[in-house]
Amino acid sequence: MDTLQSLLDTNFTNFHMPDIRGTDIVEILIIAFLVYHMLVWMRNTRIWSLMKGIVVIVIFIIIAALFNMNTILWIVQNVLSIAVIAVVVVLQPELRRALEQLGRKNFLSGIFPFDISGGEGRFSDRTIDEIARACVEMAKVRTGALIVIEQEHSLAEYEQTGIEVDAIVTSQLLINIFEHNTPLHDGAVIVRGNRITAATCYLPLSDNMNIGKELGTRHRAGVGVSEVTDSLTIIVSEETGKISVAYGGVLDRSLDSEKLKDRLRKIQNKTEEEHKHRPVFRGRAKAE
Q1: Which of 113, 191, 192, 251 has the fewest beta carbons closer than 10 A?
Q2: Are 269 and 155 part of one and the same domain?
Q3: Which segments cross the bilayer (predicted)?
Q4: How far is CA 220 from CA 185, 189, 249, in A?
C-alpha cells in the first residue's frame, strides 16, 4: 500500500498541471490567431500543395527513425539546411505578397495617425460617372478593359511598366484607350484621383485556385493586383461583356451601372472618412 501511494505521489509531482497565468492565455490566443491566418493564407497559394508534400516527407523520416535507417537519417540531416533555403527561393513571390499584405494592415495608423498626403487623390463624383459610363459602353460592344483605381497603396511600380498618359478621366478617353487594334488597348489603365496616369500597364497574376477556369488573364490580373494592394480594379470581359470588380482579392461579377457606381462610392467615402478623422501632418509650417 505504501509503495502504491509513493508511486501515485511521484506521478502527480511529475505530471501536475502548471499554473496558468493571464499572459499565458493571451499568448495562446495570439498563437492561435497567427496559425489560423497563416493556414487561411496558405490555403489559396502554392504553399498548400507544398505542405502536403512536406507532410509525406516527415512521415517518411519518422518511419526511417523508427526502423533505425541511419543512412537515410544522415542524408536528411545534411540536406535539411539546403532544403530550407530552396523552399524560401521557390516561395519568394508568395512570401513577398504576404509581407505586402501585412504592411497594408496599417497597424501603426492608430498609434501614429499622420497623413503625409494631406488628403489628395480622392476622385470626384464626375470621375465615377465617367468610369461607369465607359465600362457600360464597352460592355455593350464587348471591348475588354482593365481599370485599376489607386487608393492609399502606391501603384507607381506598375505605372513604370506602362506608358504615361496623365489626362483627366473621361469616358471617351477610356473607350479610345481600350478600342481594339489601338496602341494602348493591351494592358491596364491606372487611375489616381481624377486622372489617368498610365496605360498598357502589366499587373501581377493571382494564383488563387478558387478563381473560375472560365476566367482569363484579364480577370486573374485584376484579382492579383487587388491582393497585393488596396486598389479597386474594374474588369470588362471581352468574351461575355460582363463587368466585374476585384477588391481585396475578391471578385464580384455581373455588375450593372448602378452597382458599379455604388462600389466606387464606397471606396470614395472610405477615403474621405479616413482623411476627415485623421490628423494631417505636413511638416513645419511656412512663416507668413
Answers
A1: 113
A2: yes
A3: 20-40, 47-66
A4: 17, 15, 10
- In this predicted structure, what is the pLDDT of residue 174? 93
Cβ–Cβ < 8 Å for 193, 121: yes
Most confident of 15-29, 48-62, 114-128, 150-164: 150-164
Res. 171: pLDDT tops 90:
yes
- Helix (H) or strand (E) holding 260, with range, is helix 257-277
Ramachandran bin of 193, using left for φ above 0, alpha for ψ from -120 to 50, beta for the remaining angles: left
CA distances from residue 78 to 70, 81, 210, 218 in whole angstroms, order as listed: 12, 7, 38, 44
Range of the domain at 61: 7-90
CATH assignment of the domain containing 254: 3.40.1700.10
Q: Taking a C-beta distance cutoff of 8 angstroms, is the pair 231, 221 a contact?
A: no
| Span 156-173, average pLDDT | 90
Give whole-number Cα distances, 130 to 147, 264, 267, in Å: 12, 11, 16
- Crossing angle of helices 47-66 and 70-90, rounded to 10°: 170
Domain end marker among 71, 90, 109: 90
Residue 110 has pLDDT above 90, yes or no: no
Does residue 191 sit in the same domain as residue 242?
yes
Q: Find out whether 174 and 182 touch, Cβ atoms under 8 Å.
A: no
Clarify whether residues 239 and 146 are in a common domain: yes
Q: Tell me the pLDDT of the chain averaged across its residues.
A: 78
Beta bridge partners of 252: 245
| Contact present, 243 and 236 (Cβ < 8 Å) | yes
C-alpha cell at 10: 511521484
pTM assigned to the model: 0.59
| Any domain includes 110 | no
Number of Cβ atoms within 10 Å of the Cβ of 203: 27
Q: Considering its fold, how many domains does the chain have in total? A: 2
pLDDT at 130: 93
